[in-house]
Design goal:
mainly beta; eight-stranded antiparallel barrel; two-stranded antiparallel ribbon; 12 strands; 64% strand
């Protein structure tokens, strides 16, 4: 499965780079105020551990997708809004006899800024955002869980001053789970239960991403 995902990601990256370089011939370098970057990525890591026991829930590595919207603040700075969604499953340990997996959607809603280093066709950058992470498990009667989160990313923009470019990036998301939280709770026929009770903890996910930048 890992090899198949890697091959798909590699083909997507080649396609994005080809499109960006083709667009360069039709549009000369100029100044733009806005950028929108749809992207595909691969997310790894993330787990919840039980407060009083050995149970845990591990998020499985999988593909993700989303977009970034940037507004120019100054020649080297941008405001940034980020949305990312991962549809994955989570492996449970120590809660049920057969340790089943749970379908789980993870969504990031983030706002912050990007600093771009000087460059012409290629510009390295760093980005910092704050926001909310939503965990939405496919459990009968279960609601979504929301926690404060932050992210730190860095990468490079190719064709950085043309109408169409490439954004390659690595990013880490950090979600801060509340003290003594009960998560993945469900209610069926008036009877409620929570899968896991956690103490203060940090859930981290790492992302590798490629996106096509449209400037206007």
């Amino acid at each position: 499965m890992t090899l198949r995902v890697s091959a798909v990601g590699f083909r997507v990256m080649i396609l994005l780079i080809s499109m960006a370089y083709s667009a360069t011939a039709a549009a000369q370098s100029q100044s733009f105020k806005f950028e929108i970057t749809p992207f595909v990525s691969y997310l790894i890591g993330g787990s919840f551990e039980e407060k009083d026991g050995d149970g845990r829930v591990d998020l499985n590595d999988s593909n993700a997708a989303g977009f970034v919207f940037n507004i120019e603040a100054n020649p080297n700075g941008q405001y940034e809004f980020l949305y990312a969604r991962q549809s994955t499953d989570a492996t449970t340990q120590g809660f049920f006899v057969n340790d089943p997996t749970i379908d789980l959607d993870v969504e990031y809603f983030q706002f912050g800024g990007t600093y771009l280093f000087d460059g012409d066709r290629t510009r390295p950058f760093i980005a910092l955002t704050l926001g909310v992470t939503e965990f939405d498990p496919a459990l009968a009667g279960a609601g979504s869980e929301h926690f404060f989160s932050a992210s730190l990313g860095g990468g490079v923009q190719i064709n950085a001053k043309s109408r169409v470019g490439i954004r390659l990036e690595a990013r880490v998301y950090t979600t801060f789970v509340d003290d003594n939280s009960s998560i993945f709770c469900s209610s069926v026929n008036g009877s409620g239960a929570c899968l896991i009770h956690v103490d203060a903890t940090v859930l981290s996910q790492w992302e590798a991403r490629a996106g096509l930048v449209f400037r206007f």
